[in-house]
């Protein structure tokens, strides 16, 4: 049973009291939230993105998470609400000029100041180390402190000038109440987007079917619009354009059948006002006529044999 060999136990070794609740170090928690990726637990490096719940991620980690289809993906509960790359926003962060990083850490014995942050608010100058509340705009990705938005009330972004609404403001690494509020906003936003897609589909189908009907069946405006004077002029122009074609067809038909068509008028090229070079192309010209000596025998006579 023990206690032999002259050992004297103490009271706290024999009597077990209630276990003390382990408290999380606040400084360590703030460092983990603001300096490390929520998904891969690696140090945040640009490009840095944030989800609709205000959590910080490395963009490459989010892309790998979306492309991964293995069973281990179920372990990533921190990013289970991210369905596509459109659900995250790339942040436009302002660098802190007082932050040196690992520049002076040549020997590895440099003291890391946890209160010093890599990024600051571009308006007020507060450091983004978790001591002050920060938020970003979902429309443009600019990051500000909550104090800057309260002190300088405007409906336009302070850096890029993009217009935003209250729904576009998302708190970074907020409390449980903030996360619950952002979650309800996210669900409402996604439901609204689904309804808009459903309403756009029938409208697109109607817009495709309407031009087909208009092409097949002309409306009354296309048939009856226009003045009678313009219509008569168009008909006259059509008749004049069709006249030479009709004469050409009549001549060809008369040459084949031997008898001219009724109502068709013959027109000699010799009487026309064309040039001599143009007239010489036809057999009715004087240069094309041959004497009796040049004419062929009656047996072999054709219009094409010389």
UniProtKB/TrEMBL annotation:
Query: Where is the sequence biased in composition, kind Polar residues?
Result: 243-255
Instruction: Enumerate the InterPro entries for this protein.
Output: Rtf2, Rtf2_RING-finger
Identify the GO cellular component terms for this protein. nucleus; replication fork
Q: Which GO terms describe its biological process?
A: cellular response to hydroxyurea; DNA replication termination; regulation of DNA stability
Q: Where is the composition biased (Basic and acidic residues)?
A: 226-240
- Alphabetized GO MF terms: DNA binding
Superkingdom to which the source organism belongs: Eukaryota
Listed Pfam families: Rtf2
Q: Where is this region: Disordered?
A: 193-276
* Entries under PANTHER family matching the protein: PROTEIN C20ORF43 HOMOLOG (PTHR12775), REPLICATION TERMINATION FACTOR 2 (PTHR12775:SF0)
Q: Can you tell me which family this protein belongs to?
A: Belongs to the rtf2 family.
Subunit details: Interacts with DDI2; probably also interacts with DDI1.
Its function, per the record, reads:
Replication termination factor which is a component of the elongating replisome. Required for ATR pathway signaling upon DNA damage and has a positive activity during DNA replication. Might function to facilitate fork pausing at replication fork barriers like the rDNA. May be globally required to stimulate ATR signaling after the fork stalls or encounters a lesion. Interacts with nascent DNA.
What is the protein named? Replication termination factor 2
Organism of this sequence: Callithrix jacchus (White-tufted-ear marmoset)
Instruction: State the taxonomy lineage.
Output: Eukaryota, Metazoa, Chordata, Craniata, Vertebrata
Q: Which gene encodes it?
A: RTF2
